[in-house]
Amino acid sequence: MDIFERIKKNPGPLGQFADYGEGYFIFPRLEGPIGPRMIFQGKEVVFWSANDYLGLCNHPEVKATDAKAAAEYGMYYPMGARAMSGETDEHLALEKELAEFVQKESAYVLNFGYQGMLSTIDALVSRHDVIVYDADSHACIVDGVRMHQGKSFTYRHNDIASLEKNLERATRVATEQGGGILVITEGVFGMRGQQGKLKEICELKNKFNFRLLVDDAHGFGTLGKTGAGAGEEQGCQDQIDIYFSTFAKSMAGFGAFIAGNKEVIRYLKFNLRSQIFAKSLTMPMVIGARKRLELLRTKPEIKAKLWENVHKLQNGLKERGFNLGETNTCVTPVMMEGSPVEATLLVKDLRENFGIFTSVVVYPVIPKGMILLRLIPTASHTDAEINETLAAFEAIHDKLVSGHYKQQAEQLLKEQNLEFKPI
Questions:
Q1: CATH no. for 60-298
Q2: Distance of alpha carbon 98 from alpha carbon 352, whole angstroms
Q3: Helix (H, G, I), strand (E, B) or coil at 45
């Protein structure tokens, strides 16, 4: 079969929705400054889909630092890859500050989070090594494992008994092949908001010989006494061998970093293909990241305000009978039963009639028959915006339970001769 013919016949789990939802449900276009209120389809909406947890993207000191750095260096400097011509004192200073903040010996700044995780996994393991990872891991971890030429095992999400069973399997394979074991999990699972069971995983080091890589994109800046993440929150930061996070969440920017033992980070610096063969992170972002990190360290009231808003939103939703699953982080997943078409109608109702913009997630990201609306509270949201949102959710919940969206979905499918299939 011709490759393009196959693509036409099988557009993929999300691609099948393209004609129906592109530009509105998928690839929506928001306008105006990033914040709790933005413009969507010409109307102002309360915006719950930014990952700007600490509200730093519009902080006056951050904007001034970014603007000054851009004016001085432009958006291209430094010219090449770090290994060739892209090393600067600012990069090294940021790495030193990051390492100290997350309580590690050394750190290395990466261009992008997704690429960085792929390349970190690729550089850490050989074909003789075995990877054991959580079944709900982010796509960057899954894709990194796909690159691995050796054995890999998944364990049931946050299930320590399942992890232990797979570590027994991994130990047998690694012993036979003369390799080691790398366990990978997340500090915070970004879709459902659960913390990874890092403390329990670290306790298994007393029984098994493995190294632990943690992706803490949603935990960095939001969890722990100082904001150093899920490991600090759970009292096991020192037992995380490789700590990974991105600048795209609490740091309101782009780029990422890894931190850990000095020798291991030095090894990764010389072996991460996604960094060796890619341009260095630009100077405005590096200097801007240093300012953001300074605010994380010196302004604890920002994180305190974030959690005040998290508790108001999550408690309000629970009081109204909503199922938030097992979230114990800022990520606020509202889980309901329904079809993908019902989900789109529900979301459209929220946006058009109540002025509330949330992300919607359906199968295959979550199980069939489920709708997940994910809200990301920030330090910038106001009580008024939280109350507006709670009132809107109460209204749409009644419609969902009464079958209103189900009836609309059946009518829509009939009128437009649509059929959405789980591909």
A1: 3.40.640.10
A2: 42
A3: strand
